[in-house]
Amino acid sequence: MGKRLRKPAKKEKNFSDKIIKILSNSANKAFNYKQIAAILDKDDTQSRNQIIKDLKILAAEKKITESEPGKYLIKAVSQDYYEGTIDMTSRKTAYFICDEFEEDIFIPTNNLNRALDKDRVSVYVYNRRRGKRPEGEVIKVLERAKTDFVGVIDIQKNFAFVSTANPKMYTDIFIPKDNLGEAQNGDVVLVHIEDWPKRADSPFGKVTKVLGRPGEHDTEIHAILAEYGLPAEFPIEVETYAQKIDTSISEAEIAKRRDMRDTLTFTIDPKDAKDFDDALSFKKLENGNYEIGIHIADVSHYLEEGTILDDEAYQRATSVYLVDRVVPMLPEVLSNFACSLRPQEEKYTFSAVFEITEKCQVVNQWFGRTVIFSDQRFAYEEAQYIIETKNDVIPEEISLTGTSYQVSPEIVSATLKLDELAKIFRKRRMNEGAISFDKVEVKFNLDAEGEPEGVYFKIAKDANHLIEEFMLLANRRVAEFIGKQKKTFVYRIHDEPNEDKLIAMQNVIAKFGYKIDFRNPGDISKSLNKLMEDVSGKKEQNLIDTLAIRSMSKAKYSTDNIGHYGLAFEYYSHFTSPIRRYPDVMVHRLLQYYLDGGKSADEELFETKCLHCSTMEGLATNAERDSIKYMQVKYMQDHQDQEFLGVISGVTEWGIYVEIIENKCEGMIRTRDIKEDYYTFDEKQYALVGATSNKLLQLGDEIYVKVKNADLVKKQLDFNFLRRSEETVN
Questions:
Q1: Quick check: is 409 in a domain?
Q2: d(CA 698, CA 688)
Q3: Could you read off the pLDDT of 646-704 as tens digits, one per residue?
Q4: Which residues form a coiled coil (predicted)?
């Protein structure tokens, strides 16, 4: 996207925060309302009256002082105290993150004063003279980020300790004898920190749940969920409530909806999916255009606000897709049955229906509640086969039914036309500055006991892109429809990339002969797309894909629309997956409310909900990542005697990280374990340099490794260095 997407101008509800900031920046200096209005560049009567009102409210709340009639100030506090967040390292030191400092402030171990990772704290900053590196000391923990931890319990005669596998948790947790619960020595447990007495070295806690024995499959999966505060099952009262919901399709309800049961409709999903959120309908019109419907499960029809079911769905905010199971946002009776758009069943849906020309111009659009009948369910592999071969007989080896079968000519024709249109939409998006991240996904073939038998890679093909483009169309058009009305809405936003991270990435990819064009945001997106094309299929692809994704800002939910940089959309929302994402449920409710003529909803309320959903999405992503790491370690445990070819994916002073090419498992070789020479870290070359031989082990080099240690609890792999790829075996 060439131009930066600007935030739309917003009417000010109040000026309290801005007044506090102005007075804080000039502590002990008094201002009247005219001076504040001038600084805020507000000269209209309504704004001035609001400023006068806010000054009086702030004075009444004792946040500011009226030093003389009509003049207000904030009394100065020490300029060396700041509030912010602790970011722990794995070396028992930390950095203090605060908006008022360009660089993070170092906190030595002895200055942490019981602060833990991500806690909100008050810090005293010293050594602020020129030439000195500033350091800080935690004065007070204002808010704990987390009080529940997963670890292994070590029971002594009169007490116990719980130690966690989290490298950022620098202390174990002391458990008094009467707080052990049912725990046995060596169990993996969930503990709650209740107190941290002033003279105690460790916080005091209580065992709240026994998860099982270390290394056991279910124990480790439940430990991952518990570590991020994610539930493993639904409360019985929520399950009971869900079972009692009337999920029948009634004539009375159908009469309130647009009936699209006679329109050709089908779904395309992963072969192992059970929750079918979306379906596509296709009809050729007499004028030569196409009517294409994007039909989404009408979850909000069943999920009523104010119920225990809705409260539970909101708290979860998302389904969690672990390596061997799904932890759904909604109970199975809804997620896999009532809401799921299963073949040969009538379903209630919320739809976006478009009239589209041969050249992919949208000439008409309609949003509203519908009823559909899905004629066919495809796996992506089946739809891909039709696209590639134009053949109407699905072969046995990819068939969902296990036997070959014939697809109707109407569905084959619709699939091919939708693919053709999707390719036009995709090309147009790329030309407008969208960034294409088709990162390889690591998947596992699991046996009946959940043990990994093999690794395979999931790669997005035309069938995936077909569905993606029509989902993007619906998401974009719904957001634009409400956004242009200037009403409160839930957007999916994505800011421009972090330039510092892009520069750091440039330093790495230059080693492989690639570069990024930094002239403007549009050039950045074009050069990133070229980079993705250039690395496709090469040994460094996964490393560079990962670096590129990390250089991007994180997408999130907000009522404040700044557009979506990665997609090059000015308006974007999530409308298409309400079975697994709560923001989509909010979008459905707001859309229907506005279609019914409703006034703009409470922005503050929905912004709070957006923040919660973004937070829960982050936790779910971390849990999903940890479950993949766990399964990779488990897989490598069974291949300890095998040699693997890997690519060096990271270089640090303490060792090199190596990603195995055939399965994407990453592990570390510690510098001290490389026996052929004495190696030191050269930061400029991103390499370890041999003191005697001057040989390099640098980013991107291919080397052979063998598993040294596979730690299921810590989810860590250690490798032994064998030789460089070009060296022969002696």
A1: yes
A2: 6
A3: 999 889 989 999 999 989 999 999 999 999 999 999 887 788 999 999 999 988 889 99
A4: none
pLDDT tens per residue across span 71-90 = 888 755 455 678 999 999 98
Residues 6+ apart with CB under 8 A from 576: 277, 278, 294, 296, 471, 474, 475, 584
Look at the chain and report how many structural domains it folds into. Answer: 6
Under the phi-then-psi rule, with left for phi > 0, alpha for psi from -120 to 50, and beta for the rest, what region is 61? Answer: alpha
Give the Cα-Cα-Cα angle 668, 670, 673 (nearest 5 degrees): 125
Spatial contact of 464 and 379, defined as CB atoms under 8 Å apart: no
| Same domain for 669 and 562 | no
Q: How far apart (Å, rounded) are the C-alpha atoms in residues 480 and 486?
A: 10
The reply to whether 315 and 403 lie within a common domain is: yes
**119-172 pLDDT, tens digit each:** 999 888 876 555 567 888 888 899 999 999 999 999 999 999 999 999 999 999
Residue 228 lies inside a defined structural domain of this protein: no
Global pTM value: 0.84
Would you say residue 3 lies in a domain?
Answer: no
Asked if residue 2 belongs to a domain, the reply is no
Give the helix/strand (H/E) hosting 137. Answer: strand 135-143
No. of helices (H) and no. of strands (E), the chain:
17, 35
186: Cβ contacts below 8 Å, ≥ 6 apart: 152, 153, 154, 213, 214
Residues 6+ positions from 628 with CB-CB distance below 8 Å: 323, 442
Dig out the tokens for 58 from the structure: 């702030």
DSSP H/E element including 445: strand 441-446
Beta-bridge partner residues of 318? 581
String of DSSP letters for 522-578: HHHHHHHHHHHHHHTTSTTHHHHHHHHHHHSPPPEEESS---BTTTTBSS----S-T
